[in-house]
Amino acid sequence: MGSKKLIKDKGRKATIYKGAKCLNCGHPLELTDKFCSNCSQINSTKQLSLKDFFDEFFSSIFTYDSRLRYTLKDLLFKPGTITKNYVSGQRLKYANPFRFFLSVSIIYFLIQGLSTSLGFNNDTSIVNINDENINASTNLDSLINQIPANQKDALVLDSLKTKLDSTIKKKNIKVEAEKENSDINKTYLLESALDKISWNDTYLHRLLLYRKFYKNTKIKNPKTALDSLKHPNTSINKWLYSKNDAIERVSKNPLGFANYLIAKIPFFLFFFAPVVALIFWILYSRNKYNYMEHLVFIFHIFSFVFLASLILHIPDLLLGGSGVLLGILLIFIGPFYFYKALRNFYNQSRLLTILKFIILNIVFFVGSIISALLFFAISAAMY
Fold this sequence. Notes:
Elements: H1 2-9, H2 50-77, H3 81-87, H4 97-117, H5 136-144, H6 154-187, H7 191-195, H8 199-217, H9 222-229, H10 235-252, H11 254-262, H12 265-283, H13 291-318, H14 324-346, H15 350-381
Helix pairs in contact: 3-13, 4-12, 4-13, 5-6, 6-8, 8-10, 9-10, 10-11, 12-13, 12-15, 13-14, 14-15
């Protein structure tokens, strides 16, 4: 028994290693202080050993794991209660709500993108049929009739059809280019006419004009294009013309652009949350909670949505990636969770909670649409 105590006393927290001041911040300490009251570092002068290093490493993991465990459990099964506990002072028990929201949302989109790239989602490819080759079959029949019967094998016919389709396509491209060139020659030099149009119509007209010029000439450099058009090399003109490259990238890889926008959702919600918290602060103005505490509540709600979506993602993949479980979450579980969170956190009557639940959903729906359009428009402009 005495030998075990002796071994324990040789640890970093043993009295013989206690110091009179903190080695990290220099704060004065008593010999009875296990940790510094100023910076929370352990009060020990013992040299760091391999065993001490791993002891502290696993201790920090266990502490974080404990906070994560409480956060996950209370967030999933105690709507509103986790926020009440956090704002009441139980901060060390839970993960930081802002950091936790960003982490879980980013992890969700990373896993979703990974499952999509690995082919777990049964996405179907969209095949576009070009109507400009509709007359190819007629010309092909006339050419087939000129081929001797002994040469009408499948290989020859396929080769003939491929060449015919290619020729027709080239002719159509040439005709279209000549038509666009004719249109551009009539309009792109009219800088003075553009100046007479209202400012919002001017930018739209310029964008369409630059798009035509880009398609016709394939000139990517904005300065070269504007010089050819005899338009001033202003910053706005160069920016408008540079959007042609973005349009080309979107048309060639629409899925990549969609993933680019989807990846912005966590940051959109992060900046949208303060607006929602302001609405809560106004609607619950007679409540004891301040603005920041309403904001914590919002981030806990958003975190639940992403966390539940993350949990349901794997079984949803097993069902063929149909999105049925996600639909159930958003239509049934989500609204019920939101109502219970309002009821538990704000402690108001059922009738008043239902009334505010309806008002908040309407305001949130309208506000999210307006904010999303602005946010994604800015994201698209920067693509």
